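Sample 3 of the quickstart, ligand zinc ion:
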Amino acid sequence: MIQETKTFECRVCKSPNIIRNGTNRCGTAQYHCKDCGTYRVLSPKPVYSETDKQTVLRAGLERCSLRGVERIFDIPRQTVVRWISTHIQKLPTVADTLLPASPDDILELDEVWSFVLKKADPRWLWTAMCRRTRQIVAFAIGDRGKATCLRLWKAIPDEYKHCHTFSDFWTVYQHVFPAETHHGVGKETGETAHMERWNNTLRQRMSRYVRQTLSFSKSDLTHQMFTQWFIVQYNLDLSLTI
Ligand SMILES: [Zn+2]
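Result:
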């Protein structure tokens, strides 16, 4: 058996003359110092610097699962999730990250498979990429049917709606995208090559899109949140290099 004895002293006056004093509203143990009279938390939570936070956030975008982040940085998962959701709320929308459209821009479309909670519960990520800027101009997550395709179409900003679009032969596209500008093509034509390559990037960088992954989203909200984060950051990084 291993027993460890930890000695606490007053954090204000360093006196050992302290007694337990229940818990605060968050359930953290408190003490009362009989010498200086203070009531404080026994073991205060560590304060993380902004640099720590940024490093942890970047790790979340580099195929690192939440549990992985927790193990590497020794920061509770709940704390990481809180940072991520605060960070995501402050991010611009996908449309706000886009460079101005050109009259002859072309969009490449594709759907990529993933799942929420279990493999029997697939979620398709539909994306539209601008061939010139390589930015993701819109995305939608859902089933592989018309409703999700329609959400993708609606998510495409107006200034990109005139673009010619290329996708595989998945029939749903033909029912949603305008016949005058949409083209269903085979992979061998290379017309959707950039979009397909991006899917590989996504699978390599986001743990929840890796095939055979053990790291997956437990809810649609998390799935949407992480995907949006990845796309917005991807677009922002691109707009800095163009
Ligand atoms: Zn004291």
